[in-house]
Specification:
Alpha-Beta Plaits, 6-stranded mixed sheet, 14 strands, translocase, ATP binding, cell membrane, ABC_transporter-like_CS, transport
């Protein structure tokens, strides 16, 4: 069996009396996308900082391509690329100058600086803006340049911390395609994201963090199947009607619907049968729903069930 590209075992990090990571475990197969998800304060950024040798763990062990992130930190840094939440490129340099500078800092041979910069500018659709100052770039162009900068040394493992935050839908979709191409070429990607759709589309496997612990670790499809294949949403029109309906469902059907204002939500493997029971119950109490929606479970539903949070802001 091929060794994982990233292995985390019992990883713990405390800041004084606060435990940011509590003995977490996960493994990332080589040549895949692994999503690290969780609400604010769950420990995602702390995990990334440890894996990229920025921060030392309090206990436990982490390896990147078999190298310990503490004992062999210099070797790990030569094997990884990191693109954080905010573009780290120099706004006063051109795109080409930024990439050549990164190449020099990573000790790329002088003869490779210009060809590698040109190659990445072309791959990230930045050739036309290569000789313009980065301060003239759009947000999407800056993010693409930032990911390109993380790839100058052609690292086999890439860490992306919320890579598409703040991008418009077109730029986000374009960056998703670039990530797929990198993985198809053999790169291993670990990403954190506030967009559950992003993890659902890109990740081969996801780990969900809550209060510093891993509460789920599996393929997105498997996690959704565990929750229930169907989600029923009933729009009750008014919050008090939704509260009454939720109480009836709990008392009569022994189910626990999620209430979000005037909306009730239930995940179930028995969509059509449960919907008939719900409608019969509610209509008998003069609480017929104003709107009804039946859809497949999403990763966002899984995330809510595991963490008690829906996604919203940056993490």
């Amino acid at each position: 069996m091929t060794a994982p590209a990233i292995r985390v075992a019992g990883l713990t990090r405390r800041f004084g009396g606060v435990t940011a990571l509590d003995a977490i475990d996960f493994a990332v197969p080589a040549g895949t996308v692994f999503g690290l998800l969780g609400p604010n304060g769950a420990g995602k950024t702390t995990a990334i900082r440890i894996l990229t040798t920025i921060l030392r763990p309090t206990a436990g062990r982490a390896e990147v391509l078999g190298r310990d992130v503490v004992a062999a930190a210099p070797a790990v840094r030569r094997l990884i690329g990191l693109a954080g939440q905010y573009a780290a490129v120099d706004a006063n340099l051109t795109g080409r100058e930024n990439l050549r500078l990164i190449g020099r800092l990573t000790r790329l041979p002088a003869t490779r600086l210009a060809p590698r910069a040109a190659e990445l500018l072309d791959r990230f659709d930045l050739t036309g803006a290569a000789d313009r100052p980065v301060r003239t770039y759009s947000g999407g162009m800056r993010r693409r340049l930032d990911v390109a900068a993380a790839l100058v040394a052609d690292p086999p493992v890439l860490f992306l911390d919320e890579p598409t935050t703040g991008l418009d839908p077109q730029s986000r979709t374009a960056l998703w395609q670039l990530i797929r191409e990198l993985v198809a070429d053999g790169t291993t990607v670990l990403l954190t994201t506030q967009y559950l759709e992003e993890a659902d589309r890109l990740a081969h496997r996801v780990a969900v963090l809550a209060e510093g612990r891993v509460v789920a670790d599996d393929a997105p499809g498997v996690l959704k199947a565990r929750l229930g294949t169907t989600v029923i949403e009933l729009g009750m029109g008014e919050d008090p009607r939704a509260a009454r309906a939720a109480g009836l469902v709990r008392d009569r059907l022994r189910l626990a619907p999620e209430q979000e204002g005037a909306l009730l939500r239930l995940a179930t493997p028995d969509g059509s049968l449960l919907l008939l029971d719900l409608l019969h119950l509610l209509e008998g109490e003069a609480l017929a729903p104003r709107t009804i929606a039946v859809r497949e479970a999403s990763l966002d539903d899984v995330y809510l069930a595991l963490t008690g949070h829906r996604t919203g802001g940056p993490t």
